[in-house]
Every structure is written in structure tokens, then in C-alpha cells.
Amino acid sequence: MLRDSAEPDKIWRIDDFLSEKRKEFNRKYDFRYSVLIGVFGRLLQEGWVTQEDLAGLQADKLEFIQTIAAMDKQRDD
Fold it and tell me: For residues 54 and 64, is the Cβ–Cβ distance under 8 A?
């Protein structure tokens, strides 16, 4: 991205882009116990995990993960 230009505006746009990507990555792969259900929901919606991968979780947690996945799908559409 910087190869073709060293303009300050372009550098700041790249910084903004990388900052946003870092935030997305940190949200997607947040392994704190308190947010794992949400992480699993997002990963399920994106196809990174399957229902089979989540086998063994309690039924109420699976239902909540599926709800989050459906909400994420609606938001992304």
C-alpha cells in the first residue's frame, strides 16, 4: 500500500485500516471465558466451526451460540 506513495494522508489511512483489522481480530479470537459464547457464535456464523465441533456443550449454551450466529448473519447481510 505504501509502495506507491508516501503521502501523510495515505499513511494515516493505512494506520486506520490496520487498527480496524486488529480490533476485528481481537474480537474474533477473544478467549476470555466471559465472552467465549459470543466468539463461538461468530465463528459458527462464519463457518470456522461447525455444530459438530461444539458437541458436548450444554444445550442452553448451544442454543445461545446459534442465536448469536443468526444475529451476526442478519447484521452482515
Answer: no
For residue 73, the tally of other CB atoms under 10 A from its CB is 14
Please give the single-letter amino acid code of residue 63: E
User: What's this model's pTM, rounded to 2 decimal places?
Assistant: 0.64
Is position 10 within any domain? no
Any residues with CB less than 8 A from the CB of 18 and at least 6 apart, and which?
A: none
Domain tally, the chain: 1
Q: Residues 65, 73: contact at Cβ < 8 Å? A: no
Domain that holds residue 64: 31-77
Query: Model confidence at 65, in pLDDT bands (50, 70, 90)?
Result: very high
pLDDT tens per residue across span 3-49: 666 777 888 888 899 999 999 888 878 778 888 899 899 999 999 99
